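The authors assume throughout that readers already know how a fold can be written as discrete tokens. Each protein is reduced to its one-letter sequence and a matching series of backbone shape codes. I therefore recommend that a typical entry be quoted early in the introduction. For illustration, here is how one protein appears when written out as sequence plus structure tokens:
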Amino acid sequence: MTEEIQMNLKTEMDKYKQVERDYHKALSQRQQLDGQLNENIAVKKELDLLKSQDDVFKLIGPVLIKQDLEEAKQNVSKRMEYISSELKRVEELIASLDKKQDMHQETLEKYQQMFQQAQIKASLNQPKA
């Protein structure tokens, strides 16, 4: 009985650890996306300060290529939309993983209680020498 509970406890612990790894990975992803969004917001602010006759250059590899101001603004806006949608997706993933973590934690606590109770029963049932 205790061996079965112990095995279930270990399996549940492995599941919990996997969810925890996924959670930390998603947090890291969110942090990266936040940084990218802030970077693009700064670029958009700078582009908004320019006049239509000003030159804008885009870095492609080691080369600067001249780009139309409106095209640059559109590219930055599209990038911000994409990053925002990715941020929303990652936020939903984090919320889902958070719920899974809570669920696994509750299950772990139940198995730990069952294991402790089984150990107490086993020690009470042992013949005294």
User: Anything to note?
Assistant: The chain has a mean pLDDT of 92.
